[in-house]
Specification:
- It contains three helices and twelve strands.
- With about 220 residues, it is α+β, with helices and mostly antiparallel strands.
- The strands form three sheets. Strands 2, 4, 6, 9, 10 and 12 form a six-stranded mixed beta sheet that branches. A three-stranded antiparallel beta sheet has the order 1-3-7, with no helix packed on it. The protein has a three-stranded antiparallel beta sheet with strand order 8-5-11, with no helix packed on it.
- Strand 9 and strand 10 form a beta hairpin.
- The chain is elongated and about 70 Å long.
- The termini are far apart.
- The structure holds calcium ion (2 copies).
- The site of one calcium ion has 8 residues, from helix 2.
Length: about 220
Amino acid sequence: MRKSLLLAAVVGCLVVAGTAQATLPCAAYSSCAIAASNPCTGAGAANLRWCPKGDYGVINIYVTVRNCLNNPLPNCPVRLDLSAIGDPQNELGTASLMIVGAASRLDTSDANGACHYVITGGGCGRFQLTWTATATCATPEVQLCQNVNTYCVKSPDMNGNGTVNFQDTFKYAPQVNAGVGYCGDFNCNGFVNFQDTFTYAAHISHGGSYPGFTMTAGALGDCP
Ligand SMILES: [Ca+2]
Ligand SMILES: [Ca+2]
């Protein structure tokens, strides 16, 4: 009798512990990945080409939340916190880099424990992105990962204010006149000519203003 009571107590404790492990996000088993789309290689190589509208290139961040039993954890809200240092290309004169949307954003893990965030922005030059993913379905919250990535980027939004308009044309025109310029060389072939103007024209014509936050200015050095 005593033995069976003891056994029941032990099983009960294991079940409670197992339930807690099943609903607890675990940093050790969770994973995070980042990927920039629309890079270009060549004389004016860039890791990313983007436009505030999100129709040119983006950064994708993928987070997979797993519990402490190493199984996918669905329905867990995960907060992504962003901060960035931006160093606009010197040829632009006064300019900045920006990220569209809020510095803190939320996604909820799906049946596979997966969250996905899309980041776009404007500005041309080098920037350093710090990103942190935190699971908020536990108390206290569980930080799943923190990473820092550096990119060389170019954009039709040359001054990095979230819109493509005449102000950017003032920065693009001297480059097409000179035939060279890192930021205006959208296809990264070392020249700024009519091919790049086609790209620029497509983005200035879509209009729109996309609010977000300006990156903190910092010295990271020009892009090649
Ligand atoms: Ca602009
Ligand atoms: Ca070109």
